[in-house]
Amino acid sequence: xxxxxxxxxxxxxxxxxxxxxxxxxxxxxxxxxxxxxxxxxxxxxxxxxxxxxxxxxxxxxxxxxxxxxxxxxxxxxxxxxxxxxxxxxxxxxxxxxxxxxxxxxxxxxxxxxxxxxxxxxxxxxxxxxxxxxxxxxxxxxxxxxxxxxxxxxxxxxxxxxxxxxxxxxxxxxxxxxxxxxxxxxxxxxxxxxxxxxxxxxxxxxxxxxxxxxxxxxxxxxxxxxxxxxxxxxxxxxxxxxxxxxxxxxxxxxxxxxxxxxx
Length: 262
What we know:
By secondary structure, the protein is an all-alpha fold. It has helices at 3-30, 41-50, 52-86, 88-103, 106-117, 121-145, 149-157, 162-199, 205-214, 218-246. Helix 5 crosses helix 8 (162-199).
């Protein structure tokens, strides 16, 4: 990619971000908005530097909870999807139960999970798992079900077993669906970890937002919120990078809207 093309790609969002920050900074000065209500971007940067050691520790905690919950969901949802599509009886027995569990708001379960598993990392990982599990399961089911029926019948006539059908047909067809779901699920896992930290924790970015807001340290709360946004974008991009390596023949979608001017 040429320098000009790179600037054309990153320039507009950078300009937009700088413009928003300048307007924000100016608004806090012109209208004399107190920092406890809406801190200026410059004060948020200063707070980030002053609290850098604590922030690094909390980032590590929240990211580890997110990744453990997401990876657990991925490692369980994909095999479970394979089991569900392999048997109508198993589908009818388990799918309604899974749908019922998914319909329960996870923030309603969070207090119970804190009660059962304590305020440590385990409860946060479980919440992150629950909130990211179903999107992966549904997309994996969709991809594994939408295989070419003629090809499926042909390999069945050649006495291919269930494992061979899964490995050579269902899984490759499902990979684009699984990666698409994973990009959403990993950000949902981050939300789940933060929900758990809101309900009961003594560390993590969610806990930091809760405590700093209650103590009117709004600059620090904003720092944690910005960090969560950055972490979410990085995790999303990481899954996208793995997708491009794993299935280069499939793309997630265009970078720009259809019909955009060159």
